[in-house]
UniProtKB/TrEMBL annotation:
Compositional bias segments (type: Basic and acidic residues): 109-118
One Gene Ontology term of the molecular function aspect: pyridoxal phosphate binding
Domain Tryptophan synthase beta chain-like PALP: 12-253
Origin: domain of life: Eukaryota
Keywords: Lyase, Pyridoxal phosphate
Protein name as catalogued: IlvA, threonine dehydratase
Organism the protein comes from: Purpureocillium lilacinum
Homology family: Belongs to the serine/threonine dehydratase family.
Annotated region (Disordered), positions in chain: 108-129
Cofactor(s) it depends on: pyridoxal 5'-phosphate
């Protein structure tokens, strides 16, 4: 199986941080609801941008209840992290950028290798070079990113896949996708803390209802950490576990790899992988890989 991988970045935890920064720049008071088990780096960064952090329980209903209390007390307007069409479209712009960047890269490679020259035009044995991505795989928590990227690829021929941890039922998106019924509640302590939330109603309508996502895959905690170690040691990039879930699926999920081999043939796929975050501390890295030995 041949996969040419193009990573792109989209930071989990940064909805809170981006909203905090935007509010500060515009002189607006903002309160951010965060689970009380959020990693210290996310909390510190959000406070650092001037937000007041309101803590809640770890489940989606607990977070929603805390947000409702803030709204009732202050009259504030809720800006959801994923379950809104505007948020989905905003997150989907990464799909547009990734498509453009890979097309430019492949065009440059084709030019350097001499494809498209007059000499080659007389040859029928060489295969036509690819001009863009075959597929994109993203992490899936609430589904805003996945559904947005899927919308960005609609009508392009680029297939879009989602990936999740399977620990303690964190693969709600996969289960909902396969059953046709959205799973409304999730309670999990997967190491991929940015993906501990159920898929929202609006994202699910795109992921399953419009069938713009071609499949969902899930991976183990060990596979996530193995992918994370690879990125840290070989790519020299600081990433959090949630970011590494799609890479883990590409590396270790036999169903996904069989799909690429079956449909990509000898040429394989040009695969875009969204690495969705770098919110992790040195202390946490030590614990993760110390326990993994």
């Amino acid at each position: 199986m041949k996969l040419t991988i193009y990573p792109t970045w989209a930071w989990t935890g940064n909805h809170a941080q981006a909203l905090a920064l935007a509010a500060r720049e515009n002189g607006i008071k903002v309160r951010i609801v965060m689970p009380d088990i959020s990693i210290p780096q996310k909390i510190a960064a959000t406070k650092g941008y001037g937000a007041e952090v309101v803590f809640s329980g770890s489940t989606s209903p607990e977070r929603e209840a805390a947000a409702a209390r803030v709204i009732a007390e202050t009259g504030a307007r809720l800006v959801p992290p994923y379950d809104h069409p505007d948020i989905m479209l905003g997150q989907g712009t990464m799909g547009l950028e990734l498509q453009e960047q890979v097309a430019e890269l492949l065009a440059a490679e084709s030019k350097e290798s001499g494809h498209g020259s007059k000499q080659e035009a007389t040859t029928t044995t060489k295969k036509k070079p690819k001009t863009g991505l075959d597929a994109i795989i993203t992490p899936c928590g609430g589904g805003g990113m996945l559904s947005g990227v899927a919308l960005s690829c609609e009508g392009t021929g680029i297939r879009v896949f989602g990936s999740e941890p399977m620990f303690q039922g964190a693969d709600d998106g996969k289960r909902g996708y396969e059953s046709g019924q959205r799973v409304a509640s999730v309670s999990t302590l997967t190491v991929a803390d940015g993906l501990r939330t159920p898929v929202g109603e609006h994202p699910f309508s795109v992921i399953h209802g419009r069938r713009l996502v071609s499949g969902m895959f899930s991976v183990t905690e060990e596979e996530i950490l193995a992918a994370m170690r690879l990125v840290l040691e070989r790519c020299k990039m600081v990433v959090e576990p949630s970011a590494c879930v799609p890479l883990a699926a590409a590396l270790f999920d036999e169903e996904f790899r069989a799909l690429v081999e079956r449909e990509g043939g000898e040429e394989g796929w040009e695969l875009g992988i969204v690495l969705s975050g770098g919110n992790v501390g040195v202390d946490a890295l030590g614990r993760m890989f110390g326990e993994a030995k």
